Amino acid sequence: MSDGVEAYEIAAKYYDDAYAAKKDLVDLPFYLDLAKRIGGPILELACGTGRLLLPIARAGIEIHGVDNSSPMLGVLRRHLEREPKDVQKRVFVSEGDMRTFRSNRKYPLVTIPFRPLQHMHNLEEQIDALKTAAFHLEENGILAFDVFYPKFEGMYSKIGEEFLELEWPLQSDPTKIVRRYFRKESVDKINQSFSATFFFRTYEGEKLIQEEAEPLKMSYYTYPHLRALFVIVGLEPVEEYGSFAKTPLDNNAEQMIFLLRRATHS
């Protein structure tokens, strides 16, 4: 996980437009429905620019967001300034690290949406992040998070190859197009992680006028690995799914999605 307050400085500029262009990103209805079912206040760890946080607040639910990236939170705060006053009053934002963050509040729902746990790169970080979430749960509170289901057949291939992932018009000048390219640099089989680079290239017509790059490192999990982490932290699954459509967590899964609570001991 990037530690500095300037983490994701380049990605933050393009984050909302990039993921608005990602048509297979379908997590919002799942988390919004969950928020409506359980109610607030909600704690969202690694809230980023508010892609999920703001729709939940607009639905009338109090939500507290935490992120360690100053650029990401800067985008969120600018979004908030444009929201109605009643939405603004439902949102509280803190700069903090999900491995160490502590507040004096407990929540009926804590979320870690869109894979922030995959930015925890070793066992200590993974345990610390889950402990933070568990610490903030009310007695019967629920923790919800998702990670991708690893596709091992493609995990170790195409290292060093670059490909176009997404493109979108530049918001400040729609005559220009931003294209995001992805290049996998290496895979660490022992520690279950990969390193990559995002390239953000701005074009006027077919002429490249700007290029920016930002590194990415992500961990990947197996199901037994996650279940072992839950035992260590004292959590137990209530529901688990293989997609945001709530399909089974099986060999056809695209995601690993969990709803957890504090473990009950007989």
Task: Tell me about this structure.
The protein has eight helices and eleven strands. The protein has two domains: 9-149 and 221-262, Vaccinia Virus protein VP39 (Rossmann fold), CATH 3.40.50.150; 152-219. It has helices at 9-20, 28-38, 53-58, 70-81, 85-88, 123-135, 152-155, 223-233, and strands at residues 42-45, 63-67, 91-95, 107-112, 137-148, 162-170, 173-188, 193-204, 207-219, 235-241, 255-262. Strand 1 (42-45), helix 3 and strand 2 (63-67) form a beta-alpha-beta unit. The radius of gyration is 19 Å and the shape is globular. Helix 1 (9-20) crosses helix 4 and helix 6 (123-135) crosses helix 8. The protein has 266 residues and is an alpha/beta fold. The mean pLDDT is 95. 27% of the residues lie in helices and 36% in strands. The strands form two sheets. Strands 3-2-1-4-5-11-10 form a seven-stranded mixed β-sheet, with helices on both faces.
Number of helices: 8
CATH homology-level superfamily of the largest domain = Vaccinia Virus protein VP39
**Subunit organisation of the chains:** single chain
Please give the alpha-carbon distance between the first and last residues. 37 Å
Tell me the count of domains. 2
As residue ranges, the low-confidence spans are none
Helical proportion, percent range: 25-40%
Overall geometry: globular
How many beta-strand elements? 11
Order of helices and strands: HHEHEHHEEHEHEEEEHEE
Order of strands across the widest beta sheet? 3-2-1-4-5-11-10
Task: Give the biggest beta sheet.
Answer: 7 strands, mixed
Q: What CATH architecture of the largest domain would you give?
A: 3-Layer(aba) Sandwich
CATH topology tier name of the largest domain: Rossmann fold
- In what range is the share of β-strand residues? 35-45%
- The rounded Rg comes to 19 Å
Overall mean confidence score, pLDDT: 95
Structural class: alpha/beta
Write down the CATH class of the largest domain.
Answer: Alpha Beta
